[in-house]
Amino acid sequence: LTKVEMTNLNTQARMAYTLVSPHESNLQEMKLSIKSPIGQALVGKKVGDVVEVRVPVGTLKLRIDDIQL
User: Fold this and answer.
1) Nearest partner of 45 among 23, 25, 62, judged by Cα
2) What is the pLDDT of residue 35?
3) What is the DSSP letter of 26?
4) Could you tell me the pLDDT band of residue 50, with boundaries at 50, 70 and 90?
């Protein structure tokens, strides 16, 4: 249950998700599965890291702004 705040560097949109187990995921509640492509890319990263994630609409470039355990 880690909350991760990040910025989409392609659009400058800020977002915050809580990483949860797959059966708890709910995008309307901003709960993202650790098994999702974005969740997997974020695991083990730290504040300031930039990750690139391939998703169905293309590649997201995300900067991790804050992590709350």
Assistant:
1) 62
2) 96
3) B
4) very high
CA-CA distances (angstroms) from residue 35 to 1, 5, 13?
13, 18, 23
Q: Which residue has the tokens 């995300």?
A: 62
The pTM assigned to this predicted structure is 0.90
Residue 56: phi and psi, rounded to 5, are -55, -30
Q: Say yes or no to pLDDT of 54 above 90.
A: yes
CA distance 22 to 65: 24
Beta strands, E only, 1-69: 2-8, 13-20, 31-33, 50-55, 58-68
Among 56, 50, 42, 65, smallest CA distance to 10 is for 50
Task: Give the contacts of 12 (CB within 8 A, at least 6 positions apart).
Answer: none
